[in-house]
Design goal:
Radius of gyration: 19 Å
Shape: globular
Largest sheet: 11 strands, mixed
Number of domains: 1
Number of strands: 11
CATH superfamily: Amidase signature (AS) domain
CATH class: Alpha Beta
Number of helices: 12
CATH architecture: Alpha-Beta Complex
Strand content: 5-15%
Distance between the termini: 16 Å
Length: 396
């Protein structure tokens, strides 16, 4: 799950900064100078990065000690992190279960206490899904606010780099380090929206109950909670798939032609989805994305934050993953639509499943560049609850 990074020596001594004293790990598609950057793929087994990615430089400049690179789904294409040349990452709450993906190693490392903070990448849910499955906080920032130089791409339209930690406050501190976006002074959010129906009614009842309890807590501590409609959400996942997998297939076209057998089987199955996506389908999906964003602008004129579940089902057992494509669609059913949005989404822990004991997460989404609204609501929620303080059981 983890590769340790040699310490960076400095003649100036320890670096003071907002992250001084914290250890950090980065997903292994984010380059760390002098360290293998494998993307969990046989293709890149011996690839060594020449320079730090911009986000790694920023962590170090802020005083964080970058100590590890972390496992992932191969080329960040996958939702369980089992399709890795390094072997599948597992969930510290129950090693029989997946940590979700594709940033599974990042979520697991934070949950297990191996690092204080971790960076993941999120194109369709790859920070938010592991945050939910591992009981930590994870942010998909507004696309474009965090520099992705030195990060191996999935799709230029959807790629983001986001922090993961146990608390909203620490995620916010890391986000401030990663972006040049100045914090906008704003009044605390007042109105929170809960969709009457978001994508599907087929959500595990225990997960739906945990998210309802979360919104009830928010109401109890002073937020106004109202019902909203999220237009065009039902088809949003399909449009993300069209745009994202067309890009993925193009990025890997030469590797698909030259040595398809070197991909993990699940990766190969997913990448091949994009081979037959033509220009007309892409144009239609791009038009639908514009409609979805226009609808959301109306929603965020009514409310400042929208709350939805992160995962629609309990965290699956690694042995019960089933069909790769069916599994991907189901696990990402509620995260992919928010990737079509051009604003931020934060996943935070809101309870545990009564049957499995696994963490349950909720997504908070806000208007473009309004991460502050998410942090304000998340901080208030964590001040009133203790889900984020729970730790996985100690295992031998």
């Amino acid at each position: 799950m983890i590769s340790w990074v040699p310490p960076v020596r400095s003649d100036r001594g320890p670096v003071a900064g907002p992250l001084a004293g914290l250890t950090a790990g980065v997903k292994d598609n984010i380059e760390v100078a002098g360290v293998r950057s494998t993307c969990a793929s046989e293709f890149f087994a011996d690839r060594v990065a020449d320079a730090d990615a911009t986000v790694v430089r920023r962590l170090r400049a802020a005083g964080a000690d970058v100590v590890a690179t972390l496992n992932l789904a191969e080329f960040a294409v996958g939702v369980t992190s089992q399709n890795s040349a390094a072997g599948g990452a597992r969930n510290p709450w129950d090693p029989r279960r997946v940590p979700a993906g594709s940033s599974g190693g990042s979520g697991a490392a934070v949950a297990a206490g191996l690092v204080d903070v971790a960076l993941g990448t999120d194109s369709g849910g790859s920070v938010r899904l592991p945050a939910s499955a591992c009981g930590v906080v994870g942010l998909r920032p507004t696309p474009g606010l965090v520099d992705v130089t030195g990060v191996f791409p999935v799709s230029a339209d959807f790629d983001t780099v986001g922090p993961m930690a146990r608390s909203v406050d620490l995620v916010a501190r890391v986000f401030d380090v990663l972006t040049d976006q100045p914090r906008r002074p704003r009044a605390a959010p007042v109105r929170i929206g809960v969709p009457r129906r978001f994508v599907t009614d087929d959500v595990d009842p225990a997960i739906a109950a945990a998210v309802r309890a979360c919104t009830a807590t928010l109401a109890d501590i002073g937020f106004e909670v109202v019902e909203v409609e999220v237009p065009h959400a039902e088809d949003a996942q399909d449009h993300v798939y069209t745009l994202l997998y067309a890009d993925v297939a193009e990025i890997h076209r030469e590797r698909l032609h030259r040595a398809p057998e070197r991909f993990q089987p699940a990766t190969l199955q997913r990448i091949r989805q994009g081979l037959d996506i033509g220009p007309a389908a892409r144009r239609a999906a791009a038009h639908a994305r514009s409609d979805f964003r226009a609808g959301l602008r109306g929603v965020f004129e009514e409310v400042e934050v929208v709350v939805t579940p992160t995962l629609p089902v309990d965290v699956p057992l690694a042995a019960d993953c089933g069909s790769v494509l069916d599994q991907s669609r189901r696990l990402g059913q509620l995260s992919y639509p928010w990737s079509l949005h051009n604003g931020p989404t934060l996943s935070l822990p809101v309870g545990f499943h009564p049957s499995s004991g696994m963490p349950v997460g909720a997504q908070l989404s806000a208007a473009r560049a309004d991460e502050e609204a998410l942090f304000a609501v998340g901080r208030a929620y964590q001040a009133a609850t203790d889900w984020h303080t729970r730790r996985p059981p100690v295992r031998r």
